[in-house]
Design goal:
Length: 135
């Protein structure tokens, strides 16, 4: 993730152990699922997934876009979506509010969380990072 600055350090707490994708990783050109982290959703009361997206070309709503989805699983094999953002080609930061209760309602006993970027059509390559943090 990018270094914190005076402008952003009060807004978001970053813990490397809760990083779902490193912003400095290479851009992706196809649908890609990240490595899941082990996390018991019931133990966290209120948190969010912060998704930082770099500008990319070729965005056309519904026909050429990226969808970034936070997914949860009980077995690190079968994942279900618990939140999604659709960047529109410009650099942006998205906050996906989550809670243990919300995730548990969708995936009872969730132990793993990952992020997945899904490509529709032919938008440009995507550079993004994502991490979990407290609200």
């Amino acid at each position: 993730m990018p270094r914190s600055t005076i402008a952003n350090r009060r807004a978001t707490i970053f813990d490397k152990a809760l990083e779902l994708r490193d912003y400095t990783a290479a851009a992706i050109s196809a649908t890609t699922a990240g490595t899941a982290i082990s996390l018991q959703a019931t133990k966290l009361k209120s948190y969010k997934c912060v998704v930082d997206v770099a500008a990319h070309t070729g965005f056309v709503a519904t026909s050429a876009q990226w969808d970034i989805t936070v997914e949860a699983s009980t077995d690190n094999s079968t994942f279900k979506p618990v939140g999604t953002v659709t960047p529109q080609g410009t650099q942006n930061r998205f906050d996906l509010p989550l809670s243990g209760e919300w995730v548990e309602d969708i995936v009872s006993g969730a132990l793993y969380v990952r992020v997945k970027a899904t490509k529709t059509g032919s938008p440009g390559n995507l550079t993004y990072g994502a991490f979990l943090t407290v609200c």
